[in-house]
Design brief:
Blueprint: E1 2-7, E2 13-17, E3 27-38, H1 41-49, H2 53-59, H3 61-74, H4 76-87, E4 90-92, E5 96-104, E6 116-120, E7 130-134, E8 138-140, H5 147-150, H6 153-166, E9 173-177, H7 181-192, E10 196-200, H8 204-212, E11 217-219, H9 223-237, E12 242-247, H10 255-263, E13 264-272, H11 282-288, E14 291-294, H12 305-308, H13 323-335, E15 348-350, H14 354-363, E16 370-374, E17 388-390, E18 417-422, H15 426-436, E19 442-448, H16 452-462, E20 466-468, H17 471-475, E21 482-485, H18 492-501, E22 505-508, H19 516-529, E23 534-536, H20 544-553, E24 561-567, H21 580-583, H22 586-602, E25 608-614, E26 617-623, E27 629-635, E28 645-651, E29 654-659, E30 663-667, E31 674-677, H23 685-698, H24 706-725, E32 729-730
Parallel strand pairs: 9-10, 9-12, 10-11, 12-13, 13-14, 15-16, 18-19, 18-21, 19-20, 21-22, 22-23, 24-27
Antiparallel strand pairs: 1-2, 1-4, 3-5, 3-7, 3-16, 5-6, 6-8, 17-20, 24-28, 25-26, 25-32, 26-27, 28-29, 29-30, 30-31
Helix pairs in contact: 3-4, 6-7, 6-13, 15-23, 18-19, 22-24
Length: 731
Amino acid sequence: MKQVAQNYRSGDLAVLDVPVPSCKPGGVLVRTLFSLISTGTEMMKVSEARLSLLGKARARPDQVRKLVDSVAQQGAVATYQKAMQRLDSYTPLGYSLCGVVVEVGAGADEFAVGDLVAAAGNEFALHAELNWVPTNLCVPVPDGVAPEHAAFATVGAIAMQGVRRAEVALGETAVVIGLGLIGQLAVRLLVASGVQVVGLDPVEARCRDAEKAGALLCAAPDADGVGAVERLLVVRTGGIGADHVLLAAGGDSNAPVETAARLARDRGRVVDIGKTRLDLPWNAYYDKELDVRFSRSYGPGRYDDSYELDGVDYPAGYVRWTERRNLACFLDLLADGSVDVASLVPSVHPVQDAPDVYGRIRSGALQGVGFLLSYEGTGADDVRSARTVRGANGVTATGASAAPAGRRPVRLPGGPVRLGFVGAGNYATSMLLPHLRPQDGVELVCVATTTALSGYNAQRRFGFGTITTDLDVLLDDDSLDAVVVVTRHSSHAALVRAALERGRTVFVEKPLALTREQLDGIVATVEETGNDRLMVGFNRRFSTPFAHLREAVGGARGPLAVRYLVNAGRLDPSSWYLDAEGEGSRFAGEGGHFVDTVSALVGEDPGEVWATGHGADVHAVLTYPGGSVADLAYVTGGSPRFPKETIDVAAGGASARLDNFRQVTVWPAKGRTRRRGVSRTDKGQQAELAAFVEAVRTGGPMPVPFASLVATTRATLAVGESIAGRGPVTL
C-alpha cells in the first residue's frame, strides 16, 4: 500500500510502498477514502524536519537533555551513532481521516466490515491507504455526511475541546486569535453555541472566511485591527471586554498572549489551543485575574493508553465529553448543518502527489487552511497478501507449511545463516542489527512488524529481503535458519513457543517469560517437541570487561561475595515499561540480565532468593549452593549521569570492581592494583550474536544451556514472589 512519510534527518517527503498493517485486537482496519492535511500542525512538523541538526536541537531541548544523559552512560560516540540512526528513518504524517472498515479485530464488534468511519490519532489515522485504528479513536459517520467532510472530525474535535475548556454560554463574546484550520472550526463551533465571535489573523482571506462563517468582525493583529476589535467589543459588551479568548495561533511571537490580555474582560478566560509562545505579561494578567487554561488535543482520554489502546472508556457521569464523544459530536453537527466545512476545502489531491502538495503549501503556492488527500483504491482486496512486501534485494517469503514439530529446517553446508526478525524497535535497530548486518555469512531474510514503517525503516537500513505485518508468513518460512524475537515483554513466551513448535532455532530478548505459567509452558513445549534450540538475550556474560572480571576472580579460594548496583533511573511516564499489568514489573522484564550475570560469574545457578522492595526499587539477595552470595540492588532514584551498573566482588583476600562494563579494577591480596578497560561501554551484544550465529551455523550446542535460561528466569520471577510473600523463595 502507499503511505506518506518523512525522513526526519533529511526532511525528504516520500510516498512509500509498505505492507498493510495487521488488524490487532481492539480495533479495525480502515481503508482510507480521504485524509486531511492540517497546514498548521503538520507543516510545523515538516518544517522542523528540514532544520539543521542545531536547529532540531533548539526545537527539541527535551531530546537534547536525554542525549546528555546518554553520553554519561554510553559515551559520546555510541550516543551520536544511536541518535543519527533514529533521525535517519521515516516517520508517518497525518492524524485525521475518513474511510471504510475492511477488517474487524477481536473485541471491536461494534463495527462491521463496510462501515463508514472517521478516525483520529497521529499514530493511527495516517496518510496511508490502510490504517489500523483502536475503537476509542474511531466513530461511525452519520448518514448525510460526505466522506471528505467527515475527514475533518479530528481537527473538529481539537477545536471543540478548546471551546469546551472555555465553558462558553449563550450571549457571551469570544475572540479567536489565529484563524488557521483549528481557528476556523472554533469560530464555527462558537457561532453554533450562540456566542458572539470576533477574530484576528494576518491573512486577509482567512478573516473573510471566518466572517462568512458568522464572525462579527475579523482583522489583522496589528494596531488598527486590534483597535477595530476593541471598538466592536465596546459596542457589543458595553465596554466589559471579551468573556473568552481562544489562542489558536502558532509561532514564536508573544503578541497573541499579550493581545489576549488586552481584549479579555476582568476575570475572563484565555484558552491555549495551538502551540504559541506563552510568556505571560504578569501585570496584565494579574490586574484582570485572568483564568489561563490549556486545551489538550481531542479531549479527555488523549495520551492515556488504557483509553486509546485498551478501549477502557470513561463513564459519562464522570467525564461527559471524551475525545471519542467529541469526534462523534462534531460529526453530528455536520449532519444537522450546524457546522459547515465545505468552504474549508480549497482542493483535493491524489495521495501519490503528497510530496508536491506539501512543497507547494510550504512555498505558498497553495493557499488555504486544509487540504485533502484522496485514495482511489489500495489494490489490497486480499488484505493478507498485501501484508508482505518484497524488497529490492530479496524474495518474498512463500508462507510454506511449517516443519514437523521438533524437526529443524535443514541447512545447506556453507550457505549463509538466514535470519528472520520479529520486531524492529529501538533495541533491535540499535543494539542487535548493527552487529548482524556486517557479519559474513548472515542473511537478513524477513522482518515482521505490526506497523508498516518500522519494517520499512529496518529494510532500508539493514537490507531485509522481505517486510511483513503477517507473523505467520515469517514463522512458516522453512527457509529460515533462526527466528529472532525482539518484541514487547508480554509477547515473548507465546512467540517462543510458536517458533519452537515449528522447529525453529530461536533467539529471544529478555525476559523469556513474565510468569511461572508462561515459563512452564515453554518447558513443556521443549519436552514435547524435543527442540531446545533457544537462546535468551542475556548479553552481559559475553562482555569483554566482564570476561576480565571473571578472569580476575576465577582462581579465588572460597565463595564469592558480590554486590551489584543497577542505577535503573526513572522512565518517561508514557513508557510501556511502566505498564506493570500488561508487561510485568520493571524487574521482571529487566532483572534476568543481572541474575544471569551474577550466575555466570559464580558459575552456578542460584538456590534461594530473598527480596524486598518498594515501587520499582528492588533489593534482592541471591544465595548459591557453593556458598556464594550476591546482593543485587535495582534502584530508580539515582542520577542519570551516574554509571548504570557497577559490580563489586570480594573473594580469597582480593577485591575487584566492574564499572559500567568499561573498566575492571583489581586489588589483589598481594601486589599492585591493576586496571583493564575498553574505549566504550561493551555489554556483550556483538559477541553474544556471534556466538548464536556460530551455534546455528554449526549445529553445535547453544551458547547458554537451556537449563540455565530456565533457572535464571525462575530466580528473576522469584524476586517478585519473595517481595509479595515477605520471605525467602527456594528454587
